[in-house]
Amino acid sequence: MFYYTYKTTCTITGKYYVGMHSTKDIGKPYYGSGTLIKRSLSKYGRKNHVVEILQMYNSRDELIQAEKQLVTTNLIDDPMCMNLMEGGQGGFDEDRRDKSLDARRKLLQDPAYREAISITNAQNGAKVTNQGRLNCAQALREKYANDPEFKQKQAESALERCLLSHQKRKEKEDAGWAWVKRPENGRKRKLISPEMVSHYLTNGWIIGRVGRC
């Protein structure tokens, strides 16, 4: 798990929200779960909010203490601040959403849903500040350098994902799925179901060959 404090700012109103987050995927932006930040996201959209990673921490306990020092009554009194309570009382932990993963995995079987998620992730990734990216990269480098067990687990996980990917691709190919690619960028390929082939070909894609893992 990665632990960090962050600041989400609405580029339209200038209002901001400071919080803490625990995650296994540090590259995925997290905007906050407070009442006012949710309203801001709903009203202005994520495209008009920027997430800045403030500091990385080694444990959940360190993270909680850090948020207590950041989100104080003085901060809450700032009219531009969207926090409603002092730090250390909340925060999002990905372990709490394990029950929802099965439902999301089912959705990921839908090509249209995967396409929409790809577009959203690309747009959200562009909003992370350069300093935020540097913080993420530095945290990963330190983790690899100082934690041999983490490095080994990452390598084993990568190999497992690669083998699983090969297995799933083989099963789909045996079931009649086809590879298509964009003619202007042969590196971008997709494995699609038989009923979707005509749709992609109509939109300029061509039959392509699979790359290696």
Question: How do the strands and helices of this protein lay out in sequence?
Answer:
Elements: E1 2-10, E2 16-23, H1 35-44, E3 49-57, H2 60-70, H3 73-77, E4 92-93, H4 101-107, H5 111-125, H6 130-146, H7 148-174, E5 178-182, E6 185-192, H8 197-202, E7 206-207
Parallel strand pairs: 2-4
Antiparallel strand pairs: 1-2, 1-3, 5-6, 5-7
Task: Describe the protein.
With 213 residues, the chain is of the alpha+beta class. It folds into 2 domains: 2-146, GIY-YIG endonuclease (3-Layer(aba) Sandwich); 167-213, no CATH class. The protein is 46% helix and 20% strand. The chain is built from 8 helices and 7 strands; from the N terminus they run E-E-H-E-H-H-E-H-H-H-H-E-E-H-E.
**N-to-C series of helices and strands:** EEHEHHEHHHHEEHE
* Text of the CATH class of the largest domain: Alpha Beta
Record field, number of beta strands: 7
**Mean pLDDT rating:** 81
Helix content: 40-55%
Low-confidence regions: 95-100
Radius of gyration: 21 Å
Shape: globular
Largest sheet: 4 strands, mixed
**Could you give the distance between the termini?**
26 Å
CATH architecture of the largest domain: 3-Layer(aba) Sandwich
The domain tally reads: 2
The CATH superfamily of the largest domain bears the name GIY-YIG endonuclease
Specify the structural class. alpha+beta
Q: Numbering strands along the chain, what is their spatial order in the largest sheet?
A: 3-1-2-4
| Residues in β-strands, percent | 15-25%
Q: How many helix segments?
A: 8
